Amino acid sequence: MQGHALFAHDKAKRGLLYGKLGELNRPSFKALLQEFAAVEGVNLAGLWPVVDPTPQGLNLYQIRNHIVHGRLLPHAAADALIAARDYLRWTLERCILAVLQWDLEKSRVSPIYLSRATYNWGTESQLLKKILEANGRLPSNPASPGVPP
Q1: What angle, 0 to 180 degrees and rounded to 10, lies between the N-to-C axes of helices 78-99 and 60-68?
Q2: Tag placement on the chain: N or C end, fewer CB within 10 Å?
Q3: How far apart (Å, rounded) are the C-alpha atoms in residues 61 and 64?
Q4: Are 125 and 60 in contact (CB under 8 A)?
Q5: Is 148 left (phi over 0), alpha (psi -120 to 50) or beta?
Q6: Would you say the pTM of this structure is higher than 0.90?
């Protein structure tokens, strides 16, 4: 790395990069979640996608990245964030039910039960993305889903 043009004259940058090398051996959160869902038989149908790309809006992981990387969210995004929180809770509940081998249809997070939910994740996701773009807090075309801009 010392010979690379980006790092040749900046020991601090090289140090930051060396500090991240251990993370390259870990599977991604997306891969781990997908494997868990497949092995445990978690039904994620109808829920706000956690890591899968959403063509019109943001997935839950992108929202998480936006928050934990210190970007302020406008007050206008509050309703969409409340909806995202509920969808995240429902996703977790479905994961727990799958591990316990509980019949999803006998729960309050079944697709039929949640079809009566007051929000539509697609609409809320699009709304949140538009609010963030309008406030200059999200590029109008994020380069990679799940990766902070």
Answers
A1: 120
A2: N
A3: 5
A4: no
A5: beta
A6: no
